[in-house]
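task queued by scheduler; priority normal; single chain, no ligands, no partner chains; default sampling; output format set to structure tokens
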Amino acid sequence: MSEVLQNLNENLKRQVTLYEELHVLEREKQTALIKNDLQEIEQITARQEPLMLGASHLEKERLLWAEHIGRDLGKVPEDLTLAELAEHFPVLEKVRLDLDQVVGQLQEIHEINTQLLQQAMRVVDFTVGMLTHQEKNTYQNPSVKENEGTRKLHLLDRRA
């Protein structure tokens, strides 16, 4: 195996390890989101930041190795997919499969966490609306029309 190909393979293995660590942290974040533990969410996010920077660094490095290989194949690194590289260099097939799997898992849990955050934001918006007497209720059923004489219920009544 050429040195460039070996370096690319090692880079991809490090990416798999890094994304596995991010996946573990996303699972921890999901638990913290469900518990509504803001301090834990903040700590996990702080632990994710250096991993994200590391992922960016590894991706830049991967592009350099892919550029070397791309010259031999007559392609620019941005157009050279890992699946295509694995076709030309079967030694990359295992790391390609590992990377596909971990990135897929990471995307799934990230989507769930995004939905949990959006749901929490809707609850906050609703609560703030109740506390500040907003005229528009975010959670009003669109099929139910409000009568002119209907009075809105507010959590805090300013009448004294």
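post-processing summary
- The longest helix spans residues 93-132.
- The chain is about 70% helix and 0% strand.
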